[in-house]
TrEMBL record:
<dbReference type="InterPro" id="IPR022657">
    <property type="entry name" value="De-COase2_CS"/>
</dbReference>
<dbReference type="InterPro" id="IPR029066">
    <property type="entry name" value="PLP-binding_barrel"/>
</dbReference>
<dbReference type="GO" id="GO:0030170">
    <property type="term" value="F:pyridoxal phosphate binding"/>
</dbReference>
<dbReference type="Pfam" id="PF00278">
    <property type="entry name" value="Orn_DAP_Arg_deC"/>
</dbReference>
<feature type="binding site">
    <location>
        <position position="242"/>
    </location>
    <ligand>
        <name>pyridoxal 5'-phosphate</name>
    </ligand>
</feature>
<dbReference type="GO" id="GO:0009089">
    <property type="term" value="P:lysine biosynthetic process via diaminopimelate"/>
</dbReference>
<keyword id="KW-0028">Amino-acid biosynthesis</keyword>
<feature type="binding site">
    <location>
        <position position="350"/>
    </location>
    <ligand>
        <name>substrate</name>
    </ligand>
</feature>
<feature type="binding site">
    <location>
        <position position="322"/>
    </location>
    <ligand>
        <name>substrate</name>
    </ligand>
</feature>
<keyword id="KW-0210">Decarboxylase</keyword>
<feature type="binding site">
    <location>
        <position position="282"/>
    </location>
    <ligand>
        <name>substrate</name>
    </ligand>
</feature>
<feature type="binding site">
    <location>
        <position position="318"/>
    </location>
    <ligand>
        <name>substrate</name>
    </ligand>
</feature>
<dbReference type="InterPro" id="IPR000183">
    <property type="entry name" value="Orn/DAP/Arg_de-COase"/>
</dbReference>
<comment type="function">
    <text>Specifically catalyzes the decarboxylation of meso-diaminopimelate (meso-DAP) to L-lysine.</text>
</comment>
<keyword id="KW-0663">Pyridoxal phosphate</keyword>
<dbReference type="InterPro" id="IPR002986">
    <property type="entry name" value="DAP_deCOOHase_LysA"/>
</dbReference>
<feature type="domain" description="Orn/DAP/Arg decarboxylase 2 N-terminal">
    <location>
        <begin position="46"/>
        <end position="285"/>
    </location>
</feature>
């Protein structure tokens, strides 16, 4: 059993759904991202079932994986999108997503991005500072439009996750301190080009427990109470994303576990009428993908054994950036042969170029490895460092494989560059 239900062994070969990863590597080369369409459906289904009978809008946190095929699939299933840039808005539109189901988060929204979002008719701006609030109001007024807004408040709760992906603490750059929120809402109330529609928070990522969400929710509920005393009524409450996935042996809370408690708290406060917005990213796609890579060389020095593979930190930066653990599976595990402890490293000229450390595997040069749980924050964080073309992306659907992004051509990496006169 691997960590990802849609990537399992059949006849001793790792498959994506019904397609052998050996065949995909031979056809499309490596490094290669391989996704499972069914895994996307199942992830969506776990939110849909959890939300049944209630007014819930899932705005997929598309920074996790923004390939148009992925976005289009979710749009067809009915999701909205959480965007953080004008570029992401353009992707949503190109993928056939509904702008009316888009929420726009991020601390640094630029004028052109705010204009584009107003023109597209998004659902809501998640405003992260008073200056941004004023800027949105000015732009909307100039365009003779009314901007729907929600304040992203920082509830100062510990999401108990890696410090780089924790966002709801006082010393993070995100959101408006919850104590200052009533004042900023009061200002918004005076600006006729703004329409207050909600309140929002996002406390972090790869959260496996529901208690940090409930701590944040309780703070938001008392803010909603204060606002109603100020004469402000809200249409929705956005709890952000952040539910974790299994990378190794985690048992993250499920959407049902989370939403059951959230609905209980809303009902207890007489707030069942509030629409609930969620912004899940990782839990929608993380275990829907693997990074397939081939071993170029095995080498050893005095201290260590290394498997040098053709994928690198430019394809998957999470290990070196967050010391993140990704399981590594041999695509065709060797029954015989000595298992040694390897660091799995790439060809990039950085000591930080590693994908996994201290993994005990029986390996030979030419073997294929699958780096698991690479559906989220993998391709979207990829770069071309060392002038390496970004990998191709394949979507498997049952027995079919579809190229959803071909491997980048070498020349395309520098064809837009210009020589000096
Ligand atoms: N909403 C907002 C405002 C966010 O900032 C994020 C993620 C999400 C939703 C989606 O969160 P998720 O459900 O995926 O946890 N690159 C890091 C993760 C960064 C998350 C940034 N914000 C990683 O690879 O672990």
């Amino acid at each position: 059993m691997t960590v990802a239900p849609h990537f399992q062994f059949q006849d001793q070969v790792l498959h994506a759904e019904q397609v052998s990863l050996v065949c995909l590597a031979e056809t499309y080369g490596t490094p290669l991202f391989v996704y499972s369409r069914q895994a996307l459906h199942d992830a969506w289904e776990s939110y849909r079932v959890a939300a049944q009978g209630r007014d819930v809008l899932v705005c997929y946190g598309m920074k996790a994986n923004s390939n148009l095929a992925v976005l289009n699939e979710f749009a067809r299933l009915g999701t909205g999108f959480d965007i953080v840039s004008g570029g992401e808005l353009a992707r949503v539109i190109a993928a056939g997503g509904d702008p009316a189901k888009v929420v726009f988060s991020g601390v640094g929204k630029q004028t052109w991005e705010i204009e584009a979002a107003l023109d597209a008719g998004i659902k809501c701006f998640n405003v992260e500072s008073q200056s941004e609030l004023v800027r949105i109001a000015d732009i909307a007024a100039r365009k003779k439009m009314v901007a729907p807004i929600s304040l992203r408040v920082n509830p100062d709760v510990d999401a108990c996750t890696h410090p780089y992906i924790s966002t709801g603490l006082k010393d993070n750059k995100f959101g408006i301190a919850i104590d200052e929120a009533p004042e900023v809402y009061a200002l918004a109330q005076t600006l006729p080009s703004l329409h207050i529609v909600g309140v929002d928070c996002h406390i972090g990522s790869q959260i496996t427990e529901i208690s940090p969400y409930l701590d944040a929710l309780n703070k938001l509920l008392s803010l909603i109470q204060t606002l109603s005393e100020q004469g402000i009524t809200l249409h929705h409450l956005d709890l952000g994303g952040g539910l974790g996935i299994r990378y190794t042996d985690e048992t993250p809370a499920t959407p049902t576990m989370l939403l059951t408690e959230v609905f209980k708290a809303l009902d207890a406060q007489g707030l069942s009428h509030l629409q609930l917005v969620l912004e899940p990213g990782r839990s929608m796609v993380g275990n829907a993908g693997v990074l397939l890579t081939r071993i170029e060389y095995l080498k050893r020095n005095e201290a260590k054994n290394f498997a040098v593979v053709d994928a690198a930190m430019n394809d998957l930066i999470r290990p070196t950036l967050y010391e993140a653990w990704h399981d590594v599976e041999a695509v065709q595990p060797r029954a015989e042969g000595e298992a040694l402890t390897y660091d799995i490293v790439g060809p990039i000229c950085e000591s930080g170029d590693w994908l996994a450390k201290d993994r005990t595997l029986a390996l030979e040069e030419g073997d294929l490895l699958a780096v698991m749980s690479a559906g989220a924050y993998a391709f979207t964080m990829a770069s071309q460092y060392n002038t390496r073309p970004r990998a191709a992306e394949i979507m498997v659907d049952g027995t079919q494989a579809h190229v959803i992004r071909p491997r980048e051509e070498l020349t395309s990496l520098f064809s837009s560059e210009r020589l000096l006169p």
